[in-house]
């Protein structure tokens, strides 16, 4: 028997989440039966999508976990997996929802990156660029929430592809990080006197591509800065996730007609059949020094709600993870 801790939502969020919306539970887990494995979390992920996943069901999330005991030969004791089984310190699985960590994961690369650059957020950046935008060399790309888990990888991949990259982020420290990563232009959207002027100044020629993570007001101001036939990959809309009442216009249609823009929403799992090859490609970029990683690590399973709320507030530079 093992004592398992789990976080559950006891009250639906009303606007921004609060400590009192979460409750920590402790339960005894039975030994795994034939075909099952007992997992212990090593790193847990907090992601913006959990804001709306929490709404309907128990939190679903990614964690890298180590197999503690196993009656499933596919997952021997000591092996590492990515699992989606709730905010839990320990869990029992029949293996169906487990993804083994890449077989030749280098020993000098933290397993936490399987939740970040070499995991779901990195894949989101790659598929948004390659499958949705079809980004071409010498094009100009704009990405917002650029210092976050997805955004920083978007900018770095666009640089690998020979593009001009403009990033916006919510603090001067984040802007400095974007410059360190090789972004051509970066600005703090919270302190620029005019978002419109900042976008114009960063790319007077206009934008071929927008990798949209923020939505809302940012999107309204950015669309008119697109070039004719510009492409927009709608990855996220974090500026609207905590709204009790949906934001209203201005609506984008007229700008889209005049500029003949193409806008496509996507979720990264559309291309999951490509994940093994894509993760290898990104690991190679990491080892070659073309892809840099930064993480915002919160220590302790007890601090998961705080880490989650910090992410929604913008505390993180790079991927927000919890180390158990
Ligand atoms: N479509 C998909 O498959 C997929 C997959 C993963 C993520 N996503 C989406 O991609 C976006 C980025 O996710 P992530 O995991 O990389 O998170 P992240 O960027 O690491 O963290 C969220 C960031 O959003 C910014 N933010 C928070 N509130 C904001 C607001 N009101 N206005 C503008 N920016 C705000 C904050 O940065 P600042 O300090 O810069 O404001 C914060 O650090 C999210 O919208 C997420 O839902 C989509």
UniProtKB/TrEMBL annotation:
Q: Where in the cell is it found?
A: Cytoplasm
Q: What is its main location?
A: cytoplasm
Q: Could you give a single Gene Ontology term from the biological process aspect?
A: prostaglandin metabolic process
**Keywords of the record:** Acetylation, Cytoplasm, Fatty acid metabolism, Hydroxylation, Lipid metabolism, NADP, Oxidoreductase, Phosphoprotein, Prostaglandin metabolism
Q: Which InterPro entries match?
A: ADH-like_C, ADH_N_2, ER, GroES-like_sf, MDR_fam, NAD(P)-bd_dom_sf, PTGR1
Presence of keyword Oxidoreductase: yes
This protein's superkingdom?
Eukaryota
In Pfam terms, one family for this protein is ADH_N_2
A single Gene Ontology MF term assigned here is: 2-alkenal reductase [NAD(P)H] activity
- Which catalysed reactions does the entry list for this protein? (5S,12S)-dihydroxy-(6E,10E,12E,14Z)-eicosatetraenoate + NADP(+) = 12-oxo-(5S)-hydroxy-(6E,8E,10E,14Z)-eicosatetraenoate + NADPH + H(+); 13,14-dihydro-15-oxo-PGF2alpha + NADP(+) = 15-oxoprostaglandin F2alpha + NADPH + H(+); 4-hydroxynonanal + NADP(+) = (E)-4-hydroxynon-2-enal + NADPH + H(+); 13,14-dihydro-15-oxo-prostaglandin F1alpha + NADP(+) = 15-oxoprostaglandin F1alpha + NADPH + H(+)
Q: Which GO terms describe its cellular component?
A: cytoplasm
The enzyme's E.C. designation: 1.3.1.48, 1.3.1.74
Q: Does the keyword Oxidoreductase apply?
A: yes
Q: Where is the Enoyl reductase (ER) domain?
A: 18-322
What is the uppermost EC class here? oxidoreductase
Q: Which residues cross the membrane?
A: none
Question: What does the subunit section of this Swiss-Prot or TrEMBL entry state?
Answer: Monomer or homodimer.
The family note in this entry says:
Belongs to the NADP-dependent oxidoreductase L4BD family.
Q: What is this protein called?
A: Prostaglandin reductase 1
Q: Which organism is it from?
A: Poecilia latipinna (sailfin molly)
């Amino acid at each position: 028997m093992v004592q398992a801790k789990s976080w559950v939502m006891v009250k639906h969020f009303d606007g921004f989440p609060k400590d009192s919306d979460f409750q920590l539970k402790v339960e005894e887990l039975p030994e795994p039966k034939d075909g099952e494995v007992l997992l212990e979390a090593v790193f847990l992920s907090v992601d913006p999508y959990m804001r709306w996943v929490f709404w309907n069901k128990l939190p679903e999330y990614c964690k890298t976990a180590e197999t503690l005991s196993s009656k499933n030969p596919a997952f021997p004791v000591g092996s590492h997996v990515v699992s989606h089984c709730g905010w839990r310190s320990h869990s029992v699985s029949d293996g169906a929802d487990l993804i083994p960590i890449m077989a030749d994961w280098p020993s000098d690369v933290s397993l936490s990156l399987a939740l970040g650059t070499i995991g779901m957020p990195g894949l989101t950046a790659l598929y948004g660029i390659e499958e949705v935008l079809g980004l071409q060399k010498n094009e100009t790309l704009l990405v917002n929430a650029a210092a976050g888990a997805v955004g920083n990888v978007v900018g770095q991949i666009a640089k690998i592809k020979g593009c001009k990259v403009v990033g916006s982020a919510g603090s001067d420290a984040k802007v400095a990080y974007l410059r360190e990563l090789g972004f051509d232009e970066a600005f703090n959207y919270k302190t620029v006197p005019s978002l419109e002027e900042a976008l114009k100044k960063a790319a007077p020629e206009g934008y071929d591509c927008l990798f949209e993570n923020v939505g809302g007001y940012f999107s309204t101001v950015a669309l008119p800065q697109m070039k004719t036939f510009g492409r927009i990959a709608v990855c996220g809309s974090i500026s609207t996730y905590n709204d009790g009442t949906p934001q209203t216009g201005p609506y984008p249609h007229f700008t889209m007609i005049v500029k003949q823009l193409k806008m496509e929403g996507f979720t990264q799992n559309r291309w999951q059949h490509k994940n093994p090859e894509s993760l290898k490609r990104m690991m190679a970029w990491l080892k070659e020094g073309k892809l840099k990683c930064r993480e915002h690590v919160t220590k302790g399973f007890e601090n998961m709600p705080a880490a989650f709320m910090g992410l929604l507030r913008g505390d993180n530079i790079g991927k927000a993870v919890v180390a158990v």
